[in-house]
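#struct-pred
JK: can someone run the complex with pyridoxal-5'-phosphate? inputs below
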Amino acid sequence: MNIQMVDMRKQYDEIRSRLEPKVLEVLSSGYYVGGPELKAFEEKAASYIGVKHAIGCANGTDALQISMMAIGIEPGDEIITTPFTFIATAETIRILGAKSVFVDIEADTYNIDPAKIEAAITKKTKAIIPVHLYGQAADMDKINAIAKKHNLIVIEDNAQGFGAKYKNKMLGSLSDIATVSFYPAKNLGAAGDGGLMLTDCDDLAIKVRMIANHGQNERYKHQVVGVNSRLDAIQAVILNIKLDYLDGWNKKRRDAASRYKANLKNIAVIPFEHTDNYHIYHQFSIQVVGRDELQKFLTENKIPSAVHYPIPLHLQHAFKDLGQGIGSFPISEKVADGIISLPMHPHLAHDEIDFISNKINEFYK
Ligand SMILES: *Cc1c(COP(=O)(O)O)cnc(C)c1O
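RT: done, structure tokens with the ligand placed:
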């Protein structure tokens, strides 16, 4: 058995007959930046999510930074987000000179706890960035209601939930602007880096497109200081084809998750899926006692695993100046101590899931 955390080769084998001719076509077309393939993918992605505009960029981190630039985030502004996420969410806040104000997570969904947001709002608060962690929606109705009451902008960090739903609506369509990552290991992955911004707002769409293109709306007429962040034509054509498979792949992830859950329910805290949500299991992460020992045991048995994330952001050295030590966000800290992600991808076989589950059982016997 050759179990992969994410099996890029099996995915490629499934689609190579469609992919290869299109990639070669792009190579011979001469359109490597912008052009018809990018436009086609942006239109398809916008219609898939159900928003008016989708704007490609170089990666999910840039998507966050550009979105924040477009809503006018300035030094000194405060942005509320979760400490239990990938660094990019808060890194980009800091790069713009703004301050990330962390709010602890819910113990069951691992997403930002709406009940704790209002206490974190100050006069400087400009936005809330919920992250749909592991592919499950944050509680968007509650978050949007708070934002409306306090006149705040909401940016969904949807790097992990492309194709997931909240109350039957697509994630990425539930806020002022949403960001997506097409890093290869994400649910919809490019053959390299890629990112996307999604919005219904015409004005924001114009702004993010301009900022991603050096702040110009016409060539060499720079309205604002921007960045250089592009989704290449080759990535666009690959994503365009893969998008046709995404719903099927996400369904297979859900099937794999069900099998894992049935196997592991008595020995670990298995992922909780809220009834409002259609979770797409970007990660299948369980909480266990003795996580580091289990991880070592799995490695010895050639089972890959990962920890998303071992250190909540408020305890990262990079954010030590926020002055929030151990105990500041107890739920995030507790989850970080016990969480472990198991292999999860659409091509994971039943016997692989059973093998992994049996080994975990064996460890705890
Ligand atoms: C992957 C990820 C990002 C960043 O995406 P990149 O494309 O790697 O820059 C941002 N936020 C979250 C929650 C992520 O998982």
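RT: quick notes.
Residues 233-264 form the longest helix (32 residues).
The chain has ten helices and 14 strands.
JK: thanks, will look after standup
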